[in-house]
Specification:
Largest sheet: 6 strands, mixed
CATH topology: Beta Polymerase, domain 2
CATH class: Alpha Beta
Helix content: 40-55%
Strand content: 15-25%
Structural class: alpha+beta
Number of helices: 5
Number of domains: 1
CATH architecture: 2-Layer Sandwich
Radius of gyration: 14 Å
Length: 131
């Protein structure tokens, strides 16, 4: 089943919210980058939580949509986990690592969407009920 890049970014954000990710944002890179359409960036409070966020995104997209990331980096250290779904690249950080690399500041000129965790969770529940 094919999914638009916008829908994929929102679905990824919803799975991250399900594991209590904080500060979930999507950066729209379509006008400035040829290698992906969106970055979804979020944080977990600990290495363990970032790994749980990664696991939830991976399992949710695989089980519900048959999607696997093209590449995953950083899962063993879990301070910055990168998941490449081609149209969407996911960055799951610990807060200190996110502050250090400041991806949002680096891509500060692109449109950004901040997500409300409650709305994402409601959408995830609605999507599960429809399946």
């Amino acid at each position: 089943m094919s999914m638009s890049p916008e829908r994929l970014a929102t679905t990824i954000a919803a799975h991250a919210a399900d594991r209590k990710a904080i500060d979930i944002v999507a950066l729209d890179l379509r006008s400035v980058a040829g290698y992906t359409d969106f970055f979804v960036i979020c944080s977990g409070n600990t290495d363990r939580q970032t790994k749980a966020i990664h696991d939830a995104i991976h399992k949710g997209l695989k089980d519900e949509h048959g999607l696997l990331p093209r590449r995953v980096e950083g899962a063993s250290e879990a301070r910055w986990i990168l998941m490449d779904y081609l149209d969407v690249v996911v960055h799951v950080f610990t807060p200190d690592t996110r502050d250090f690399y400041r991806l949002e500041a680096l891509w500060g000129d692109v449109p950004r969407q901040e997500f409300d965790n409650e709305a994402l969770l409601a959408e995830l529940s609605a999507g599960s009920a429809a399946s």
